User: Which sequence fits this backbone?
């Protein structure tokens, strides 16, 4: 099965959009015809980006895709998007069920690889960890945008905080949730909508 990527980031032409939708639909149909389950992956960066889209694709996504195919014998479709804060992230449709924790561990390792000649260091996990340790240095608190949440909605933040603080200091906030996976029937809708959805 072929692997595909959709290099456009902003509004494609109608022809490109139709072509992309067809490729994703064909990919999903082919996987199902071969009795392969579908997974929908989202890969994010936990701290502010310092690299261009091309650099992130070359030094982060590409080695991750190599790991994905060599470790789990999968085919995939991927594309790059921008979130509301202007940060890049990647979406993939994969023709297999893949283990979340192994993918997250590998992605965090890749985006925290350190120095690469000629460009900024890749230290996204280290930066995230420093930010979190500084934020919580005086104990648990909420970010301003969360302070108006209902009390029960703050429980996940508190649980996450307590879970991290129970670890040795060097391990606290060292494995951020940078990979998310959805499996099964929900993917069919996502592959036809969210995956192809264009960021303006």
Assistant:
């Amino acid at each position: 099965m072929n692997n595909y990527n959709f290099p456009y980031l902003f509004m494609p032409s109608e022809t490109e959009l139709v072509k992309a939708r067809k490729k994703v639909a064909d990919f999903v149909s082919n996987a199902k015809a071969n009795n392969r389950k579908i997974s929908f992956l989202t890969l994010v960066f936990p701290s502010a980006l310092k690299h261009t889209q091309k650099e992130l694709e070359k030094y982060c996504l590409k080695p991750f895709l190599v790991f994905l195919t060599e470790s789990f014998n999968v085919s995939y479709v991927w594309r790059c998007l921008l979130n509301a804060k202007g940060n890049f992230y990647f979406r993939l449709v994969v023709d297999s069920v893949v283990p979340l924790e192994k993918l997250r561990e590998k992605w965090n390792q890749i985006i925290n690889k350190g120095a690469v000649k000629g460009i900024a260091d890749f230290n996204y996990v280290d930066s995230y960890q420093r930010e979190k340790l500084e934020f919580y240095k005086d104990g648990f608190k909420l970010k301003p945008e969360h302070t108006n949440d209902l009390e029960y909605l703050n429980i996940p933040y508190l649980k996450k905080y307590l879970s991290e603080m129970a670890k040795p200091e060097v391990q606290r906030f060292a494995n951020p949730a940078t990979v998310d996976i959805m499996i099964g029937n929900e993917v069919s809708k996502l592959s036809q909508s969210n995956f192809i959805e264009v960021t303006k």
In short: The domain at 4-123+177-192 is CATH 3.30.70 (Alpha-Beta Plaits). Residues 189 and 195 are 9 Å apart (CA to CA). Residues 14-33 form the longest helix (20 residues).
